[in-house]
Design a protein that fits this description.
CATH topology of one domain: Four Helix Bundle (Hemerythrin (Met), subunit A)
Structural class: mainly alpha
Helix content: over 70%
Order of helices and strands: HHHHHH
CATH architecture of one domain: Up-down Bundle
Length: 187
């Protein structure tokens, strides 16, 4: 086996172990039951939540850059081409995540008295944000493929998809499920 293949296999194994640990941590801390009165009253202030969210996202971005740097294993010429494209992509990704966070805030504000109309709005907006994220990744796959190679672009998409998926799981797993209506819905 070529040494490069072994090195890449080790990097990906390490990445997937980290990703699996990340997912297991997110799932183990998940609670899908409605929050108790104590949990609701213990909710932090909006400014504390905002600071916490900003720290989480900043930390995630730094961790993701480091993971991509190690997993993509680019030479200097490839790095010089890739990173400006990546930073452009990341700058366009941030508003999509801001939109997702705003939807989560709306959900938290309206929970547990969520109307059918509010639930429909949140789901539709969430799906639109997810679609925008996928379309953005498709656009940047093409840019990376043109600037470097399709293999590097494919690895970028593979890593980016796994990372963003794990981040979404971590973030969304902390939300309680939309409450069941107390009376059956009328059609």
């Amino acid at each position: 086996m070529p040494k490069r293949f072994i090195k890449e296999a080790c990097l990906f194994t390490s990445f997937y172990k980290t990703l699996l640990s990340f997912l297991l941590l997110a799932i183990s801390s998940t609670t899908f039951a409605e929050p108790t009165g104590e949990q609701k009253s213990a909710r932090r202030s909006t400014s504390e939540e905002q600071k916490s969210l900003e720290l989480l996202t900043a930390s995630q971005r730094m961790d993701k850059r480091e993971m991509l740097k190690n997993a993509l294993d680019l030479n200097q010429t490839e790095s010089d081409r890739f990173w400006p494209i990546y930073y452009e992509y990341q700058a366009q990704l941030i508003p999509i995540y801001d939109r997702k966070f705003a939807l989560i805030e709306q959900y938290a504000d309206d929970y547990p008295k969520l109307s059918e109309r509010q639930a429909d709005h949140l789901v539709r907006e969430s799906l639109t944000a997810k679609k925008q994220q996928i379309e953005l990744l498709q656009t940047y796959y093409t840019k990376v493929a043109r600037a470097l190679s399709k293999n590097i672009a494919a690895r970028f998409v593979q890593l980016e998809s796994a990372w963003n998926g794990a981040f979404d799981v971590k973030l969304l797993s902390r939300l309680p499920l939309i409450p069941s209506p107390s009376t059956p819905a009328k059609h």
